[in-house]
Amino acid sequence: MTKTEGRTASAAVKDILLSNPDGLREVIRTVMQEVLEAEMDEALGAAKGERTPERLGYRSGHYGRTLITRVGKLELRVPQDRSGHFSTELFERYQRSERALVATLAEMYVQGVSTRKVKAITEELCGHAFSASSISAINKRLDESLKAFAERSLEEPFAYLILDARYEKVREAGVVMSQAVLIAVGIDWDGRRQILSVEMAGRESRSAWKDFLVRLKGRGLKGVELVVSDDHAGLVAAIGEVIPEAAWQRCYVHFLRNALDHLPRKHGDDCLQELRWLYDRRDLDEAKADLAAWLGKWSVRYPRLTSWVEETIEQTLTFFRLPRQHHKHLKSTNMLERLNEEIRRRTYVVRIFPNTESCLRLVRALAVETHENWMEANRYINMDDLREHKKLALRQAA
């Protein structure tokens, strides 16, 4: 797209937003309509009215389709081909997590634990209140596809594994409690991120994490060289027991947050900022030189903090074993933050899930959506850097 075209498109969007109270809905509708037309062009091998020997078929009008979204109902025109072979994945992919959210809200309504607000949301999104039978049908279709994703075989090796957990409120036997959502992301040798598993557990215990990792290995997880996580004792113990061959990187972001526990309430920002800078160094020798200087500068003023850092910081420096190009991606669990933010945004609507199954359904639907986007995107990191790094290490060892 040229700069002129970019300005024209931006101006058109701005005009829609300013002139139409439902401008955002119209922008999304327009984009999705363009996606449908582009899909048809690709399927036929030619644009509308285009003459080309590569053409595989011809258009045959459109049919109407309503798509339910968070910005309201979108009325779309789905193109058809004469042979009737064309189909689009747009609706299935876009609505998977939408269905999970609506089904959860509706489930709350049917079970009698909702409010008038929940009923209003479900009616606004879907045009009617749900019956128990309709919810059951929605959930059955959704659960089948999510189960296939959750139990798929992991054929290729994953060099990097990132583990994290978050908590959601779930009502069980009339009691509201927090339950852990355990998440695993892997990076394969093509440099792509994949969501490997999303499961629920009563809490982040050693046994819960061990079972989680054992199930991953049972599905084919192999070749892990580095695991990144926070320093939860149960998780660290499970990693050492189930994947002993992998090195462990303690997330430096969590480490810096933990450092606040060893500082007085009133403290300057310079101390932690200088500690943070260690993680931007080129190699381990440079980082350790800066660490020695940092300890010498702050040990008198903050002896409790510096003693704790001296004892534990080695766990956060494992990433220096990797090629420098990989440092920023593997020194923390931050790559999961966007997924966690999206989970938080959707689960906030529900607040308290009526049961564990409905919570897992929504979170897994979001995970599938994110996983598919990651697989279609450009590779996350260049694994050729790791291959060359390992070859160099072998030559130096010899």
UniProtKB/TrEMBL annotation:
The keyword DNA-binding applies. Keywords: DNA recombination, DNA-binding, Transposable element, Transposition. One of its GO terms (molecular function) is DNA binding. The keyword DNA-binding applies. InterPro entries: Transposase_mutator. GO terms for biological process: DNA transposition. Belongs to the transposase mutator family. Required for the transposition of the insertion element. This is Mutator family transposase. It comes from Rhizobium meliloti (strain 1021).
